[in-house]
Amino acid sequence: MPQVTVIEHLLLHQKESPMATGRFTRLLNELILAAKIISREVNKAGLVDVLGFTGEINVQGEQVQKLDDYANMVLIHRMERAGVLCAIASEENADLVLIPDQFPKGDYFLIFDPLDGSSNIDANVNVGTIFSIYRTKEGCTGDKLCDLLQRGSEQVAAGYFLYGTSTMMVYTTGRGVHGFTLDPSVGEFLLSHPNIKTPETGRIYSVNEAYWDYWDEPTREIVRYFKGSDNRRGQPYGGRYIGSLVADFHRNLLYGGIFLYPADHRDPKKPKGKLRLLCEASPLSFVAAQAGGAGSDGVRDILSIEPEELHQRVPLFIGSKNDVAMVEEIYAKAR
Ligand code: AHM
Ligand code: MG
Known about the structure:
9 helices, binds 2,5-anhydro-1,6-di-O-phosphono-D-mannitol, alpha+beta, hydrolase, five-stranded mixed β-sheet
């Protein structure tokens, strides 16, 4: 396969697309650079003890940061200087991060989860950065939340970096989903998975079944459907759950399957599940939809939900189209 970088691919295949602008290319370039820096630090995670950086203060006299804080800092530092954003939102920041006055501004709005699955870091399990990009609404200054919040269907691009056995970038600008693998010897993400399509019916279900007692009866029926043999496959789906959304999603995207994080009706902390609409569910649903799959809250397409707040949570059922449709069908029957 010829070695095509992300930016070459964007420019080669999307000439007529409004996304092939210099500003969008700059945004993507900065994001990629931030992800390479995060990837380098994630790869060193296991060496922290070996190198003696275990205390609060490292040998340079600097405060040792948790990797998720570090990833957040790198992303904000790079992206606020990119000159193409009007604001940033991160899973780690309660409020919008506005672009400081000394830096030029643009009309893109970037939302990210800097290090999804970070509770797995110490066990050397895959983690990732999820991103979502919008344009500021027409006529808006782009510095007020109410101006920025939009439905997932308005995203101009979304995707993720997966820090796994190799580091990958998977993204869409609404013209298919493409995957690139970081070649550390040249320091570039090279096209490895062009035009990803997910199977219409999957063979994997991914859910934290320990919450069984917290679920309502229709949710249990859904999980029984996937683990039983009276389903579309005529045999149980394989159960796989890493506990890193981005890694569970990526595996299911390639192999076919469904990831479920339902509402926990008896857990007062999670009446809408755990995952966030804007920095997790919406970007991954955009990728899923572009790969021929779907994302739903059990009733509606995730991409159709009008956000009300920055850190809004949403039940999430995402992956192969027929499997997501089955979830909606079982909930609909129960209503
Ligand atoms: P986080 O954003 O606090 O890291 O939580 C999100 C993570 C997802 O990556 C993962 O799918 C989920 O939490 C796992 O939650 P649970 O331990 O409840 O199964
Ligand atoms: Mg997360």
